[in-house]
Design brief:
mainly beta, Phosphatidylethanolamine-binding Protein, three-stranded antiparallel sheet, 5% helix, protein kinase inhibitor activity
Length: 149
């Protein structure tokens, strides 16, 4: 199966695409939740999922900083309070801001939005979601921010 890309887009006013994320979003700098918006949600989508992942973390599968399921399948700002937060790699649900090891260089934080044809049950980890629900992905889009300490 080919990539699931068409009209879906995710954006944020908190940082420029591929640009540095502000300190206030980091775990040590306030842990503020980033604000994302989406456009181009497919008409046949039943819900959205949001995942923020750092593939540069010195861990076998990287580090997942945020997972939210059950978001409304509509264009506009993403309100994570209406969704279901799943555990991050740290083991707790909710936003876990960037906190790369000091001196480890610049890490990339991929904020993925997935438009889904079927609802996600429960609060699976990122890996379990992609394994179990990957076939329900109608479209996906990402915006990347960077952070270093």
């Amino acid at each position: 199966m080919g990539p699931h890309v068409a009209d879906l887009r995710i954006s944020t006013d908190d940082y420029e695409p591929d640009g540095p994320m502000p300190e206030r979003l980091s775990k040590d700098g306030g842990n503020e939740v980033p604000a994302f918006s989406v456009t181009g949600v497919p008409e046949d989508a039943v819900e959205l999922a949001l995942v923020v992942h750092d593939p540069d973390a010195p861990m076998v599968r990287g580090f997942t900083h945020w997972v939210v399921y059950g978001l409304p399948a509509q264009d506009g700002p993403i309100d994570p309070s209406v969704g279901r937060a799943a555990p991050t790699t740290a083991g707790e649900p909710g936003w876990y801001g960037p906190q790369p090891p000091a001196g480890h260089g610049t890490h990339r934080y991929y904020a993925w939005v997935y438009a889904l044809s079927a609802p996600v049950s429960g609060e699976p980890t990122r890996e379990a979601f992609l394994d179990r629900d990957g076939g329900s992905i109608l479209e996906q889009a990402r915006v990347v921010g960077t952070f270093s300490r």
